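Help wanted!
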Amino acid sequence: MTDGQVGAAGPGEPGEPAGPAEGAPGTDLPEAAVRRLESTAFSSGLTVPDFAACLDLGLQPVALVQGFCVMQWGWYGQGSGYMRGMSPYVGGPQSAGSYSETYRCPHGFVSNEHRSWGQNLEQPWVEAAWAQGYGSAYQRMIEEATAHGAHGVIGVVDRVSSVADTGTTEFHFLGTAVTVDGGPPPAGGVPWSTYLAGQRLTKSIEAGFMPVAVVAALASVRVWAYCITEYLMEGSMSWGSPTGPHLIEQVSKAHMAVRQLARKHVRQQLTGDELHGATIDVVARELSQGDEVIDCTLRGNRMRRFKDFDQVELPRPTVRLS
Amino acid sequence: MSTGFDPGAAPRPDVRSEMLLGARSLAAPAPPSEARGITSDLSVDEALLLHAAGWEPLDLVCGVAVVSVPVGVWNWGRGAISLASDAHDQAVDQAAAQLRGECSKVHGHGVVGVRVEVSVRTHHIDVELVGTAVRPIGGKDARGTDAAQAMPFVSDLSARDFTLLQRAGWMPVGLAFGASFVYAPRRTAGTAMKQTRQNVELTNYTEAMYSARESAMEKMQHSALHTGGQGVVEVKVTEGPMSFARHAVGFTAWGTAVRLVAEAHQFVKPQVVLPLDDAVVTFDAESLRGGAAKGRRR
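Answered by r_m:
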């Protein structure tokens, strides 16, 4: 099993044994897995309509392939290598070019409790940990598909969930490995992958778009509220805080930034290809005194245009008599 | 462009050979590219339909705004809670402006399929708009390219509805929003006591709901006119007491403001189809001979 980066289109890294070889000498596969891999029966996670469409397209299902990775989030507070959590002024491995914005209190010195500084800060270490977990699970699924001699993986489903309240996150990939009848293996022998299956995949191919890989990225921004943000978010009245409705600039900018960062991270994986069927999910955890952590996940299908677009005729509107 | 459907005119392409063509394109590593790839949240169907209508997706765009609600706004009172309504309007305007800004940056002429998320909290109102920036293929726009890029339309219509609307001679011009929050007046202690054992309408809540509704709908229609629209389609409403202040009711309405760009409305005559895969009603042959006449559906 290898650690990987999601959406990697190049050759996969060679596998390394990760545990005792029970079933097959020289491999880390359990005995049952060896029997499964040697079986001539195929397995697939496709629905019957998707299975039929897959055969129409000249794709032969080979196996239901999966990849898992369970990650523990590190401690980012005092004492950690990251040294975040005490103050944004405490140093840490902030990557060059990552997003940050600082806000200054307009009141001058008021008290030690007064929030005289504020900062929106991208958390690259959180993003890297997520990418590691997601990428490793993805790469393991792709490795399974490669072991089956597959050309691609269709109908990919990914799930990211908390295993328990211990800061542990499970990444799970599942898809159906397929071969293309009479088709050449993909470059480097690394199978392509897509969330699509069935008629949706067929339409994409007909339209001239070939799936390259599923791509995803997480962007994380920490909001350290300064006094004005604190007053506005918590509804406390204080000197200098507006009396009417007011745009909470720091939080609004953080929300925009986290979405822009997610798109930037995904765009870096596209290398000129297109992203189709993107979904964007945002989770904002309000902490206290206006502080927030905002995570944004963006995922979709990286597609490559392999022929000029065949413009379809506008379909005729219909009314069903039923 | 022909809009008729002729089954004989366009034979279905051989999908197997198309698939092989696609597989061969991945057999060699892709040449390095500096091109800015398209991103979109449209489904394959929507993207194809947009192309058929002469539009192409450009980029996934967002607009977010968080606006504060002043302290004490939700406390007991009378009439409309205008500060909360103002906060809502400000959040929507700001988010829409950001969405338009992102659209203009990628030279889009509008945003379709906008997903609208509004969250009303005690101390702030959050509005999030996410959609796909689009432009006409070839860049030709009836409004003029510069004007279109300077003021892109924003629409929460799906690409399918956008295409149909355009075919009927209409165009979206922007999102029309209206929100109103109103206090439900207290019942007197005597009235509350008297009504305890009765099935009775709480007219204070009903009236507050009507009041909020009238105000929100009026604001939405005003907002449509303000953006240059003639009307609003696909209006969505949310209503009910606020979860954190049960004595206040809120009513929110939004939709896509549209205006007629053709000389007259173009009638879209749909073809009536009778699907053959629907449930079929069968009957028992025994019923013909006076037996149990039971139709059954399978």
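OP: Thanks! One thing I noticed: The longest strand of chain B covers residues 245-260.
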